[in-house]
Specification:
Structural class: alpha/beta
Radius of gyration: 45 Å
Largest sheet: 7 strands, mixed
Helix content: 25-40%
CATH class of the largest domain: Alpha Beta
Number of strands: 35
InterPro entries: DNA/RNA_pol_sf (IPR043502), Integrase_cat-core (IPR001584), Rev_trsase/Diguanyl_cyclase (IPR043128), RNaseH-like_sf (IPR012337), RNaseH_domain (IPR002156), RNaseH_sf (IPR036397), RT_dom (IPR000477), RT_RNaseH_2 (IPR041577)
CATH architecture of the largest domain: 2-Layer Sandwich
GO molecular function, one term: RNA-DNA hybrid ribonuclease activity
Number of helices: 33
Strand content: 15-25%
Strand order of the largest sheet: 18-23-22-19-20-21-24
Shape: flat
Number of domains: 6
Oligomer: single chain
Pfam family, one: RVT_1
GO biological process, one term: DNA integration
CATH superfamily of the largest domain: Reverse transcriptase/Diguanylate cyclase domain
Length: about 1000
């Protein structure tokens, strides 16, 4: 078999060199295994899959495994070798996505490569690592064997490369399982032809006994694929149907393992297996097979006997999600509607762990949706999702009072195009298990109240204004209000159709009579029910006045009661149906409204207590001011959160939906959920300008910088998208911020390196002093340094006149090293004068001056000055006046010191050899002890012949060193660009500083 060319791919092991090789000891086998091993080695040798090897560093044993039908399969135990190899992270395709992409095609062809792994060659350097031992000798693989770590990743990398034009269109490949698909029968032959062309080109061989061409259905990656959809593997189903009643822990584990392989097809799989999990708890050997287990086992077998056919969604399909919650698990089903029928796409189920079990029911429902979105992420990303629920799931995820985890879930779900719809009448067996969203046994008092016949008016005076449809979701509201000397308040309990109780306590910031408090409680409850999207509501109150007035049995004569009654009727009209009843005081007392309302309910309901403050009576009309409203950045988000309205542009709509997950509306204002702060009030840029001005310049302002100003605005509780940009613009325009701004320390321009083209062509010149007066009244020193060799010259001076500088340059530079090309100095009068300029002009020396107040532009000589001063300090100790006598020693020390930038000493770059140091006289070295005059002259002459090469190498090192310095320097550059005509601020100098202001004076003056 020719195999795949190594130019295309070969398998590398990448063995960790730090791991010690392992040579396994030879194992003994029975005669039958020896014979099978001998035959297999002969076969592999004849087809050149293996070869003999000498002195291998890694050695493994052969493992003979009996085949299911007849014969033996030879494997190699590469356990030790695999541990020494790093994992190849090349991704394998997702099986669910491959199966979905395959279902729904008219014709399919299934192919399997012949000894697929063996068609890839091992890299020559790694062949010896695959060595194995037999009774006949040592062998290693020339091709990639089974059992090697990363072999699957290598094969997947190969097929992805070979079939790249076909994968995803007419072909799907998972390692060595290949499939060609066609939507219509007449397309299948051309699709197969394209695949065989690639096989022939790369010399890949197929196993004819494992291939099937042009079939309508077949097994692919453990699923039955056909044009109708996806079916569970019949063998896996039969394995469950054939099981007897489990008697041991291992039997139950086997059962749950077989179910886990088919969870995609099993509705509420976790709930069905819950009795089995309970039987496994608390024991390691014996189990207790309860009646509950027997019933679950029987129902599971019955369900698997009619396992559903799963559908595959097409592009543009709207998918539907049904959710269900039980005491110990959350479940969902993804549905595709076609031909007025519902077809399941995927079932999801998850057991609740630890704190998840204690979530309130409504949070469990939200968690069920989050679990579905995580497991079915490809579907949620590619399709619009409709969540069918009668629970206020959307409102809960967007409520400002929600818990932190609900906020996190809302942000996570905001990525997807999810719409929440009420549940219609369900059709089909696919959703039979999802008729109820909450499956706990329930028998609450609220339900009894809605189903019992109404008592006679003489008992509780009830009147139904709209006939309640008991087949539809019915909400129940208990309200009560109270007024006393300590204050006024109200309590209410709203119970959902699934017995989730929401409890509110309200504290009034205004005085209200007892009847007004009763009405306020009723109005608050109606507003809450409307916010929860309730359609039908039944109300219970112990106030005879409120109940009779609403039911039109009493007439409201007082102006206040009339206003409250009109407001209540207006809110009640927004419901499809409603009723209001009076209940006895014993069930709804005035002493503690919220406590007694809650005690009137069934025990076991989730408690969600919220306290609100009511600032003004509900009948008081809000103050409305007419303003000119222009579009703002908040409008699309606000419209979506309030009315589910999205922009027409699909990309913009998706962006708004994703962003809105971090926003919420409270009392008509938009707020943003901060990452580590409370809700941030969203502002327009105009409103933000006022906030910035107040924080920056107000009573508590500190004229901080842009970033600090923006951070403080967020800490105060404000947000708008351009906050940081606006803060920068604001601080840049602030006059006081500019005048008192700190002097910038970061460089404004990139570093410009100065490089001399040849030795002694460019010198830097500078002065040191005044220093302690020495002999001859000298107290200054003039210093010069060559930019190429770093050679330094210095001379002590009593006065620093132009004549003395001219004499130094003539004697120490020109007469010793020749006329330089240029000299760089500062702007001192000793250098910047007519006499010195004329001297340089006569010798054709270009005189360059450093930038004023910027000594870095003559940095080479400044660096030498620091070295000279530091060395003098160290040597002189207390006799500071002796520095002129020690100056030559300091220069000698510097000239013979290695330079990092050039890689040589200044002496060697100047003269081609290293100087003989005084230490070599006291303690002779090899060159001084073996000195020969004739040979020494020859070597010195030879060094002079090599000096140009030495200087070239030094120049390259110097350039590289300066580039490294410039790279670090430039990383800190903060450019400051000025244009002609710009207004600028100038740094305050000693001459312009107001002495009366002291340290409180401005740093800058202007503008100019």
């Amino acid at each position: 078999m020719p195999g795949i060319s190594p130019d295309i791919i070969s398998h590398r092991l990448s063995v960790n060199p730090a791991v010690r090789p392992v040579r396994q000891k030879r194992r003994a086998y029975d005669p039958e295994r020896y014979e099978a091993m001998k035959a297999e080695v002969d076969r592999l040798s004849s087809i050149r899959f293996i070869r003999e090897v000498d002195y291998p560093t890694w050695l493994a044993n052969v493992v003979m495994v009996r085949k299911p039908r007849k014969g033996w399969r030879m494997c190699v135990d590469y356990t030790n070798l695999n541990r020494a190899c790093p994992k190849d992270s090349f991704p394998l395709p997702r099986i669910d996505q491959l199966v979905d992409a395959t279902a729904g095609h008219a014709l399919l062809s299934f192919m399997d490569a012949y000894s697929g792994y063996n068609q890839i060659f091992m890299h020559p350097e790694d062949q010896a690592h695959t060595s194995f031992i037999t009774d006949r000798g040592l062998y290693c693989y020339k091709v990639m064997p089974f059992g090697l770590k990363n072999a699957g990743a290598t094969y997947q990398r190969l097929v992805n490369h070979l079939f790249a034009p076909l994968i995803g269109n007419t072909m799907e490949v998972y390692v060595d399982d290949m499939l060609v698909k066609s939507r219509t029968a007449d397309q299948h032959i051309p699709n197969l032809s394209a695949m065989f062309t690639i096989l022939k080109q790369y010399k890949m061989r197929l196993n004819p006994t494992k291939c099937a061409f042009g079939v309508a259905s077949g097994k692919f990656l453990g699923f039955m694929i056909s044009q109708r959809g996806i079916e569970a593997n019949p063998e896996k189903i039969q394995a469950i149907l054939d099981m007897t009643i489990p008697k041991t822990v291992k039997d139950i584990q086997s059962l749950t393992g077989r179910v886990a392989a088919l969870t995609r097809f099993i509705s509420k799989a976790t709930d069905r297996c819950a009795p089995f999990f309970k039987a496994l708890k608390g024991t390691k050997r014996n189990i207790t097979w309860t009646v509950e287990c027997a019933t679950a086992f029987s129902e599971l077998k019955e369900y698997m006997g009619r396992a559903p056919l799963l559908s595959t969604p097409e592009h543009g399909d709207i998918l539907v999600v049904y959710l269900s919650v039980s005491a110990s698990a959350v479940s969902s089903v993804l549905i595709r509607s076609k031909d007025n029928a519902e077809h399941p796409v995927h079932y999801v189920s998850k057991a609740l762990q630890d704190a998840e079990v204690r979530y309130p029911d409504i949070e469990k429902l939200a968690f069920s949706l989050v679990v579905s979105a995580r497991r079915l992420r490809p579907y949620f990303q590619a399709h619009t999702i409709h969540v069918l629920t009668n629970q206020p799931l959307r409102q809960v995820l967007q409520k400002p009072e929600t818990s932190g985890r609900l906020v996190k879930w809302a942000i996570e779900l905001g990525e997807f195009d999810i719409h929440y719809k009420p549940r219609p009448a369900m059709r089909g067996q696919a959703v039979a298990d999802f008729l109820s969203e909450f499956t706990e046994p329930q028998a609450s008092a609220a339900t009894q109240l809605t189903t019992e016949p109404n008592p006679s008016p003489s008992q509780d005076q009830t009147l139904t204004k709209n006939t309640l449809d008991l087949t539809q979701p019915l909400w129940t509201l208990f309200v009560d209000g109270s007024s006393n000397a300590q204050g006024c308040g109200a309590g209410l309990v709203l119970v959902s159709p699934d017995k989730v109780a929401l409890e509110y306590a309200l504290r009034f910031k205004f005085h209200a009579s007892n009847n007004e408090a009763e009405y306020e409680a009723l109005l608050a409850g109606l507003r809450l029910a409307k916010e929860m999207d309730a359609k039908q509501i039944q109300i219970f109150s112990d106030s005879q006045l409120v109940v009779y007035q609403v039911n039109q049995d009493f007439t409201a004569k007082d102006a206040s009661m009339t206003a409250y009654l009109q407001h209540a009727r207006h809110l009640l009209a927004t419901f499809h149906a409603h009723s209001i009843k009076q209940v006895p005081r014993s069930e709804n007392s005035h002493a503690d409204a919220l406590a007694r309302l809650a005690s009137a309910l069934e025990q076991g309901m989730g408690r969600h207590i919220h306290i609100e403050f009511l600032a003004q009576p509900s009948t008081q009309a809000p103050l409305i001011c007419t303003i000119d409203h222009s579009p703002t950045w908040m409008d699309p988000i606000f419209q979506f959160l309030q009315n589910q309205t999205l922009p027409a542009n699909l990309a913009e709509a998706r962006r708004v939906r994703h962003r809105s997950a971090r926003y919420l509306v409270i009392n008509g204002s938009l707020y943003k959920r901060g990452f580590n702060l409370p809700y941030l009030r969203c502002l327009t840029p105009e409103e933000g300008h006022y906030v910035l001005r107040e924080i920056h310049e107000g009573i508590c302002g500190n004229h901080s910088g842009a970033r600090s100003l923006a951070h403080k605005a967020i800490r105060q509780g404000y947000f708008w998208p351009s906050l940081h940009t606006d803060a920068q613009a604001f601080t840049q325009k602030s006059d006081k911020s500019q005048r008192f701004a700190s002097i910038p320390q970061l460089p404004a321009e990139p570093l410009t390196a100065m490089v001399s083209p040849w030795p002694f062509a460019q010198w830097g010149l500078d002065l040191i002093g005044p220093m302690p007066e020495g002999k001859g009244q000298v107290k200054y020193a003039v210093v010069a340094v060559d930019y190429f060799t770093k050679w330094a010259e210095a001379e002590a001076l009593a006065t620093i006149t132009a004549a003395r500088i001219e004499s130094f340059v003539w004697q120490n530079i020109v007469c010793r090293f020749g006329i330089p090309n240029s000299i760089v100095t500062d702007n001192g009068r000793q250098f910047d004068n007519a006499k010195f300029k004329q001297f340089c002009s006569n010798l054709k020396i270009r005189l360059c001056f450093a930038s004023p107040a910027h000594p870095q532009s003559n940095g080479q000589v400044e660096a030498i000055n620091k070295i000279i001063k530091k060395t003098l300090k160290t040597k002189l100790d207390k006799a500071k006046g002796c520095w002129p006598e020690l100056l030559p020693e300091v220069l000698w020390s510097y000239r013979t010191t290695f330079s990092t930038s050039t890689g040589e000493t200044p002496f060697s770059l100047s003269f081609g050899t290293e100087a003989v140091a005084p230490v070599e006289i006291g303690q002779p070295t090899y060159r001084t002890s073996t000195y020969d005059a004739t040979a020494n002259d020859e070597q010195l002459a030879l060094n002079l012949d090599f000096i140009d090469e030495l200087r070239d190498q030094s120049s390259m090192r110097n350039v590289a060193y300066k580039q490294r310095i410039a790279k670090y320097y430039d990383s800190r550059v903060k450019p400051r660009a000025f244009k002609m005509g710009d207004w600028v601020m100038r740094k305050v100098s000693l001459a312009t500083k107001n002495p009366n202001e002291g340290t409180l004076g401005p740093t800058w003056e202007g503008p100019y």
